[in-house]
Design goal:
The complex is a heterotrimer of chains A (about 130), B (about 120) and C (about 250). Chain A has one domain: Fumarate reductase/succinate dehydrogenase, transmembrane subunit (3 helical TM bundles of succinate and fumarate reductases, Up-down Bundle). Chain A is about 70% helix and about 5% strand. Chain A contains five helices and two strands; from the N terminus they run H-H-H-H-E-E-H. Chain A has helices spanning about 20-50, 55-65, 65-90, 90-95, 105-130, and strands spanning about 100, 100-105. By secondary structure, chain B is mainly α. Chain B has helices at about 5-35, 45-55, 55-85, 90-115. In chain B, helix 1 packs across helix 3 (about 55-85). The radius of gyration of chain B is 17 Å and the shape is elongated. In chain B, about 45% of the residues are buried. Chain C starts with 5 loop residues before the first strand and ends in a 5-residue tail after the last helix. Chain C has two domains: about 5-105, Roll (Ubiquitin-like (UB roll)); about 110-240, Orthogonal Bundle (Fumarate Reductase Iron-sulfur Protein, Chain B, domain 2), CATH 1.10.1060.10. Classes of the chains: A mainly alpha (about 130), B mainly alpha (about 120), C alpha+beta (about 250). Chains in contact: A-B, A-C, B-C. Chains A and B meet through helix 1, helix 2, helix 3 and helix 5 of A and helix 1, helix 2, helix 3 and helix 4 of B. Bound molecules: iron/sulfur cluster (SF4) and FE2/S2 (inorganic) cluster (FES). FE2/S2 (inorganic) cluster (FES) binds near residues 58, 59, 62, 63 and 66 of chain C.
Chain lengths: ~130, ~120, ~250
């Protein structure tokens, strides 16, 4: 009789995601949350200052002109857009849709999200800037 | 096998992910980049105008949704990300992140209610 | 058909009676344009080394037994053509499973999980045969058909980092098979399956890496099944919080 002795290969808990581009893309998608979180903190700070009064708000707006603030916001924007694209691109998996009996093609579901995104963004900019 | 309570937070995560996908980029533009880059005038983001927006019930509700949902989305995803980077102190990490999101939520509500 | 071209197969070997750990052994095999990696392995077994162990049966991507890591990617070896690889091909047993011997892995864990999700139709009440068959429209079939295509090859488990780090995770193929039966109009076993799917070790261990769907040779898209199960379970949960909910 041969005894069994199954061999277990260890997978690194910290560096596993460096082993395949697929995993790196996943981690890039996941770290967008750090920047969404940081920007949200900035937004909460803004609302808080708005409530404090005119002077506090003017401070907040003046701060957005600083080099650090501009740099930060550009980084936030890059990661926010990565979040948007990675989120939209998987919507057909999470929410498959049917028209009558026919499944809607993935491209239609994804395309509708992008179209909505453009509309929301343009509208928001127009309203904010009018 | 115990039924999980994950759905409470996951619902916020998923809703927040969707809201964030649609509005966070343009919010970043409006509050952080459009004024310094002269896409919109500084006047458009003046205290009077923004305050009036936040005083309007619909404006309040909009601001609340676009701030509180992304906050929970980020908190939950960061919890998973910490685990993916090999940090195994899941419960303490989750508590810190969720408490942070909760504090942010409360600050947002109280600020909006004062306007 | 062949010229003198050859390729080198680097095969992971593990002989439990003598080896403390796996190691690689190289074999030089003829390059044949229409060969798949499985043909190359069969050449080794027939002509060079009878001791190499691996599983296969159908040689046509339906039995699901020949999965292995080929150049680091989970693949069916009967569907991986030599012509798509270089002159050196590295062949290893499926990742994330214990190695029984050479390219053979221990899959007891999956079989147990697969059983646990009850992969069969659970009818509300059994009809006597005299009442005829359970009818289903093409549209009802369409809803779940994609998820029936699974051949249990386990490539998805070999691609899933969450399974790698938590072997308790029920995993892609089992969860998508649960979804397949839940979506079947003849079935009413969802509540029973939810005890597994909606548990901590069920869909909630998944962080939607999506690797399972990338590697699935049958386009089952287990990641989609799991996301849909998360959404449905979340709806259940919130509904139960409403007055009159259960
Ligand atoms: S879901 Fe796809 S990859 Fe996973 S076992 Fe089934 S056929 Fe194989
Ligand atoms: S030998 Fe049957 S799937 Fe490859």
């Amino acid at each position: 009789m041969m005894g069994r002795k199954p061999y277990i290969r260890e997978v690194s808990k910290t560096t596993w995601w460096l082993k395949h581009p697929r995993y790196m893309n996943y981690m890039l998608r996941e770290v967008t949350s750090l920047f969404i979180g940081l920007y949200t903190a900035v937004a909460i700070d803004g609302v808080w200052r708005l409530q404090q009064g005119r002077e506090a708000w003017e401070h907040f707006i003046a701060w957005t002109f600083s080099t650090e603030a501009v740099f930060m916001h550009i980084v936030f924007l890059v990661f926010a857009v990565i979040h948007t694209t990675t989120w939209f691109n998987v919507t057909p998996k999470a929410m498959p849709m049917h028209v009558g009996d026919e499944p809607l093609p993935d491209a239609a579901i994804i395309g509708a999200h992008y179209a909505g995104w453009v509309v929301v963004s343009v509208l928001a900019l127009l309203i904010a800037g009018k | 096998m115990a039924k999980s309570h994950k759905p409470i937070i996951w619902g916020l995560f998923a809703g927040g992910g969707m809201v964030s996908a649609f509005v966070t980029p343009v919010m970043i533009l409006i509050t952080g980049l459009a004024v310094p880059f002269h896409l919109i005038s500084r006047e458009a983001m003046s205290y009077d105008r923004v305050h009036a927006f936040a005083s309007n019930p619909i404006g309040k509700l909009l601001l609340f949704v676009v701030i509180f949902l992304p906050a929970w989305h980020a908190a939950h995803r960061l919890r998973i990300t910490a685990h993916d980077f090999g940090l195994r102190q899941d419960i303490p990490i989750a508590v810190v992140l969720y408490v942070t999101a909760a504090v942010g939520t409360i600050m947002t509500i109280s600020a909006l209610l004062k306007m | 058909m062949s010229n003198d071209r050859t390729i080198t197969l680097e095969v992971m070997r593990y002989r439990p009676e003598t080896d403390a750990a796996p190691s690689f052994q190289s074999y030089v095999v003829p390059y044949v344009e229409e060969w798949v990696v499985l043909d190359a392995l069969n050449y080794v077994k027939d002509n060079l080394d009878t001791t190499v162990s691996y599983r296969w049966s159908c040689h046509m991507a339906v039995c699901g037994s020949c999965g292995m890591m080929i150049d680091g990617e989970p693949k069916l070896s009967c569907k991986a053509f030599l012509r798509d690889y270089g002159s050196k091909i590295r062949v290893e047993p499926l990742s994330h499973f214990p190695i029984e011997r050479d390219l053979v892995v221990v899959i007891d864990d999956f079989i147990e999980k697969f059983t646990r999700i009850r992969p069969y139709i659970i009818a509300q009440s059994e009809k006597p045969v005299s009442e005829g068959e359970y009818l289903q429209t093409p549209a009802q079939l369409h809803k779940y058909k994609q998820f029936t295509l699974c051949i249990n090859c386990l490539l998805c488990y070999a691609a899933c980092p969450q399974y790698a780090h938590n072997p308790e995770f029920v995993g892609p193929a089992a969860l998508s098979m649960a979804h397949r039966y839940n979506l079947d109009s003849r079935d009413s076993g969802r509540d029973l399956r939810q005890e597994v799917s909606a548990s901590h070790e069920g869909v909630w261990e998944c962080s939607f890496v999506g690797a399972c769907s990338d590697v699935c040779p049958k386009h089952v898209d287990p990641a989609a099944a799991i996301q849909q199960t998360k959404i449905a379970s979340t709806m259940d949960y919130y509904k139960a919080l409403l007055p009159g909910g259960k």
